Amino acid sequence: MDGMLPQTHAPFISEPRHEGRMQHTIRQPINSVGTGLHTGARISLRLSPAPENTGIVFRRTDIDMPPVVARYDMVVDTCLSTVLGCGTASGHAERIATIEHLMAGLAGCGVDNIFIDVDGPEIPVFDGSAAEFVFLLECAGIVPQGAPRQYVHINRTVRVEDGDAYAELSPTAQPGLTIDISIDFPAAAIGQQRYMTCVEPGQFREHLSRARTFVLQPEIDYLHSVGLARGGSLDNAVVVNGDSVVNPSGLRHPDEFVRHKVLDAIGDLYLAGGMVNGHFRGHKSGHTLNNRLLRKVFAEQANWRRAPLDASLTTPRDRAA
Questions:
Q1: Is 30 a domain residue?
Q2: What is the pLDDT of residue 38?
Q3: In terms of Cα–Cα distance, which of 39, 43, 80, 41 is closest to 58?
Q4: In what side-by-side order are the strands of the sheet with 83-85?
Q5: Is the residue at 318 inside a domain?
Q6: Which residue out of 9, 38, 279, 287 is catalytically annotated?
Q7: Residue 208: which of 250, 262, 282, 269 has the closest Cα?
Q8: Is 24 annotated as a binding residue?
Q9: Does residue 194 lie in a domain region?
């Protein structure tokens, strides 16, 4: 369904399917080891089951740091990735960075409750997509729990802007989260692309989970000069130089760039503290705008409500915030 630029892909036609409206966790713990994108360090990751209503909880095992619940108001940096902090004033040490791909995998697979342990300051990058996280979750087994899933229902349209870039959440007649994202890059290899989808396990696994992060060649030297992207390579990122993709293996999808932006948005929106029931529209949006959007949504109680999915069958009155 891809066309000429601007490329547009819309893999959903009818209502998204939902594999249960109960909360889910994983059946058993699972471990993996990978490289930190920015530190270049070897980092161990452990995913463990969590009780009902726990949420997504990150824990660092290498330092004395309180557990951090994955929530929008625990985000302390969005410059190069989404970074969680414990809320203390002790500085950069008590942070967990690059969480967005794991968060996207959790949202895409429908995992509500989990403990995430890492022995370093960031989540391993693996291949730059969410595919490894999906693999780990499926190997551990995704199982239903006894409590109903509490969705964050969007009651009225909320929008944030930065120049011509924007991010918006609005009520939807469809159950679950639908996403419509467009990008526009001067690099000819990327150009203008648009992607529309619903967020549910089958769609996420097949169409989104393997889309990798990308970087422009001129940005790499700068990142290295400030001590970042030490673990970056052609094995975990798509590198673009003008009208060409540097990676010898090329792209996994013709529109892999916008698919990855959708993946990032799914991970960022899961910081709502639960799965969102609404429609997300973004143009040239990124981690910063996505986080600003959630902060604006939760700034007014009239913008949202928390309830099981069945509560969304009565469509709220839409009024822009």
A1: yes
A2: 84
A3: 43
A4: 75-77, 83-85, 95-96
A5: no
A6: 287
A7: 262
A8: no
A9: yes
Structure tokens at 67: 């557990």
Number of separate domains in the chain: 1
Phi first, then psi: what are they for 169, rounded to 5°? -120, 135
Helix boundaries (H) for 96-226: 100-109, 131-140, 201-203, 217-225
Active site residue 287: yes
Q: How many CB atoms lie within 10 A of CB 7?
A: 21
Q: Is residue 321 part of a domain?
A: no
Return the biggest CA–CA distance within the chain. 54
Number of C-beta neighbours around residue 209 at 10 A: 23
- Find, among 97, 94, 69, the residue nearest to 83 by Cα: 97
Q: What averages of pLDDT result for each successive group of 10 residues across the chain (321 residues)?
A: 44 44 98 93 98 99 96 95 77 85 98 98 97 98 98 98 99 94 98 97 96 92 79 92 96 98 99 98 98 99 94 49 57
For the domain that residue 158 is a member of, what is the CATH number?
3.30.1700.10
Q: What is the DSSP track for 171-184?
A: --SSSSEEEEEEEE
Q: State the pLDDT at residue 1.
A: 31
- Residue 264, marked binder: yes
CB 139 within 8 A of CB 30: yes
260 has binding-site annotation = yes
Calculate the alpha carbon distances from 93 to 62, 122, 151, 305 in Å.
11, 11, 33, 35
- Taking the whole predicted model, whether its pTM rises above 0.85 is answered as yes
Q: How far is CA 231 from each of CA 77, 142, 211, rounded to the nearest angstrom?
A: 19, 30, 18
pLDDT at 10: 56
Range of the domain at 247: 7-313
Dihedral pair phi/psi, residue 113, rounded to 5°: -130, 125
